[in-house]
Design brief:
The complex is a heterodimer of chains A (about 375) and B (about 325). Chain A is α/β, with parallel strands linked by helices. In chain A, the strands form three sheets. An eight-stranded mixed β-sheet of chain A has the order 11-12-14-13-15-16-17-18, with helices on both faces. In chain A, strands 3, 4, 7, 8, 9 and 10 form a six-stranded antiparallel β-sheet that branches. Chain A folds into two domains: about 110 residues, Immunoglobulin-like (Sandwich); about 250 residues, Rossmann fold. Chain A has eleven helices and 19 strands. Chain A is about 30% helix and about 30% strand. Chain A starts with 5 loop residues before the first helix and ends with a strand. With about 325 residues, chain B is α/β, with parallel strands linked by helices. Chain B folds into two domains: about 230 residues, Class I glutamine amidotransferase (GATase) domain (Rossmann fold, 3-Layer(aba) Sandwich); about 80 residues. Chain B has twelve helices and 14 strands. Chain B has a seven-stranded mixed β-sheet. In chain B, a hairpin with a 2-residue loop joins strand 11 and strand 12. In chain B, helix 3 packs across helix 4, helix 4 runs antiparallel to helix 5 and helix 5 crosses helix 11. The relative contact order of chain B is 0.17. Classes of the chains: A alpha/beta (about 375), B alpha/beta (about 325). At the A-B interface, helix 11 and strand 19 of A face helix 4, strand 5 and helix 7 of B. Strand 19 of chain A pairs antiparallel with strand 5 of chain B, so a sheet runs across the interface.
């Protein structure tokens, strides 16, 4: 039986502008009632369309006007625990414009701007993403490196944990799209918090960036050589790092995950830990043409070849993907391959899309899987 | 010669009860304090010292170890190599253990005639116990190799510090061993052979300290980021509190209402008793007998838990 929703009460009560105003007063929008979510636009428009990034759900969903008012509504079934990024497309005078929901304060930022965020029933904002006044802060310092492989400068930031000591040895985490991870997941705060909670050990993190990520991250031999034969030796000469695969991790999201995995593939046994978030692991079962376009050609070539002959490239791999991503099929397909090849795999799915907050929300599980902290060792 | 008495206590961080136990046993002399589990913060013992009315002397085991390693690079390298081997051993043991625990869980969830279930259940626990024993044997072998190496190439720096520690301890009536990082603490206790130096002094130990002086050090946490964790053996302890497996802060770290988990812990480590030590809890162990229990929680083989009563639980 369909539950009686707030919008049903309004519609049954001969709505007019005053009643709509009263209905909206003090309401948190969108209205979440169990798995039913009512999206609402209030304002002048000829028409309103919900735009979201849930793969599999109708992407062009028109909101319906409440007759005689400026309110538009659309009720959608959203599964428990979901997090959905969306915008409204407003149609006015023959044109249209995508806007954030002015009645919803929840926003997610990304390199393209910001989206409104629906926090569905059961979704909880992780406590460990917010600055904890008790957690000591690590430091971030910019670094630049002249890469012989690329014949150009590469830049990034180095994170050192609070209480860093030159006489200690630390594991190394190398992050692809480092600036985006810092800006859009708040990863520095997360590192501070997880270290404080003893859920991960003190680690050194190299946040790296690429000036041409779609090319360099897409299974580029030069990139693998740069990370393994240039960056790591350079960091090791300057910082107290463990020299063992178990203490070296590569991570990235989307193409960054492909870059991580293809680098580990080229240097099997060197990178003992991997975190692969929503990897763009496109492949074909027959033929070489893929539906995602030429940018993916080298990725498809690589993944097809790996699927043909899976080999252990790392020891411990964390894989995560949103079930509302078009890449969920590819990521689910990778897991049994990695497992079969003898790697220890932890696969986590979330009711979320291909976005930075999905990747943020999985960082605790990912980081503590590849680098378990001293939680089990400390008894105060 | 064993200690006159060993007092196992709950965490002392926020509401210390150590002083009461010291008074109860009539200890009035100096107390050697070991805070090596605090690692770099070892020297920050002002509150502890004040709590014991300033009658303390810190053995500085963490700092001394650093000094020894600085002076004797060969020993440091050997020690690092040993730790590396132990880490590998722990990793591989954990992989097997997780599989063993998962098999136990799956078998337990199946339906079959009672006699078959009993057999299979016993076999699951026996397999886990065998894994634990295997791991302990591996650790013992690694430690023996290191000790042989130390005997073959004595370290003057280590010998000097051992003499100094022995000298300090001669002036002390008791030893207090604080919590912290249990592996780090255990390493320092072993490096300076503290087990032998304690002699018949009173011992007060809490949290990681209590774990380190028991027979077996069991690492545990039922609520880690990766879901219910697998309790794993780290190594043997000093053996000053035989027959006990110590679980500090059981209400925070153990899922005490999960009967299967409690039962498995109790059966896995039997005949040793699994005792949980919340804040302000205490039990005294003297001549192999427990007395004056206060707030200590015992995990029973039927999956229940309750206040430890030596007359009933240790019978």
């Amino acid at each position: 039986m369909t539950p009686r929703l707030a919008i049903h009460d309004l519609l049954a009560n001969s709505p007019n502008p005053e009643r709509v105003q009263a209905f909206l007063a003090g309401k948190k929008l969108p209205i979440v009632e169990g798995s039913s979510v009512t999206f609402i636009w209030y304002g002048q428009a000829d028409g309103v369309t919900l735009r979201h990034w849930i793969y599999g759900l109708e992407s062009d969903s028109a909101l319906v006007r409440v007759p005689g008012t400026d309110m538009f509504h659309l009720t959608v079934e959203i599964p428990y625990g979901s997090r959905v990024e969306y915008k409204y497309e407003l149609h006015r005078g023959g044109g249209s414009q995508w806007v954030e929901d002015p009645f919803n304060p929840n926003r997610a930022r990304d390199p393209f701007g910001a989206n409104s965020v629906l926090q569905g029933e059961g979704y909880e904002l992780p406590t460990w993403i917010k600055p904890d006044p008790v957690a000591r802060e690590g430091s971030l310092e910019p670094f630049a490196y002249n890469s012989a492989v690329f014949g150009a400068k590469r830049t990034g930031c180095i994170y050192r944990p609070a209480r860093f000591r030159k006489t200690r040895l630390y594991p190394l985490l190398v992050v692809h799209d480092g600036s985006d991870y810092l800006n859009y997941t708040g990863m520095k705060t997360i590192l501070d918090n997880l270290i404080h909670r003893l859920e991960i050990p003190d680690i050194i993190v190299a946040f790296t960036d690429s000036p041409d990520r779609l090319r360099e991250y897409a299974n580029d031999e030069r990139h693998a050589r740069f990370l393994t034969e240039e960056l790591v030796p350079d960091l090791t000469s300057r910082l107290p790092l463990y020299d063992r695969p178990q203490a070296r991790c590569l991570m990235g999201a989307s193409f960054g995950a492909v870059a991580s995995f293809s680098t580990a593939y080229r240097y099997p046994g060197f990178w003992g830990r991997l975190i692969l978030q929503s990897g763009s692991f496109a492949f074909t079962d027959i033929g070489k043409r893929n539906r995602r376009g030429p940018l993916f050609d080298r990725v498809v070539e690589f993944v097809n070849s790996y699927r043909e002959d899976p080999a252990p490239v790392s020891e411990r791999v964390f894989v995560s993907c949103g079930v509302y991503e078009s890449l969920i099929y590819e990521n689910r397909s990778m897991v049994p391959l990695l497992d079969k090849a003898g790697m220890q795999v932890r696969f986590v799915e979330a009711r979320d899309g291909h976005n930075w907050e999905n990747w943020r929300d999985r960082l605790r599980e990912g980081l503590s899987w590849v680098f378990p902290g001293p939680l089990m060792f400390v008894y105060e | 010669m064993p200690p006159r008495a060993v007092v196992l206590l709950g965490p002392q961080r926020f509401d210390p009860s150590l002083g009461e136990s010291v008074s109860k046993l009539g200890v009035t002399g100096r107390i050697a304090v070991i805070t090596a589990g605090w690692q770099e913060r070892e020297a920050e013992d002002e509150e502890l010292s004040a709590h014991l009315h300033g009658k303390t002397v810190n053995l500085r085991l963490h700092e001394r170890a650093e000094e020894v390693f600085k002076a004797d690079k060969a020993l440091q390298n050997a020690h690092r190599e040993r730790q590396e081997v132990l880490r590998h051993r722990q990793d591989f043991y954990r992989i097997r253990l997780e599989s063993g625990l998962e098999a136990e869980r799956v078998i337990r969830s199946r339906s079959a005639p009672a006699d078959i279930m009993d057999d299979e259940d016993a076999a699951s626990v026996a397999a886990i116990r065998a894994l634990d024993d295997w791991h302990l044997a591996q650790c013992a072998r690694v430690r023996k190799d290191f000790e042989d190496r130390c005997d073959l190439t004595p370290s003057p720096a280590l010998a000097k510090h051992r003499r100094e520690i022995a000298g300090v301890m001669k002036e002390c009536e008791a030893v207090a061993i604080a919590g912290g990082h249990v592996a780090s603490l255990l390493n320092r206790l072993a490096l300076f052979d503290i087990g032998k130096l304690i002699g018949n002094r009173y011992v007060f130990a809490w949290s990681a300290g209590a774990m380190a002086i028991s027979d077996r050090v069991v690492l545990f946490h039922d609520h880690p980021p990766q879901g219910p964790g697998a309790s794993e053996i780290l190594d043997v302890g000093l053996g000053l509190a035989p027959g006990v497996v110590v679980f500090p802060e059981p209400q925070q770290r153990l899922d005490l209402d999960h009967r299967e988990r409690v039962e498995l812990l109790a059966r896995r480590f039997a005949p040793a008793m699994c005792l949980g030590f919340p804040a302000r809890s205490r039990v005294i162990l003297k001549g192999g007998r427990f007395s004056a229990p206060d707030g200590v929680i015992v995990l029973r083989r039927d999956g229940t838990h309750g206040l430890f009563d030596p007359k009933k639980d240790a019978a």
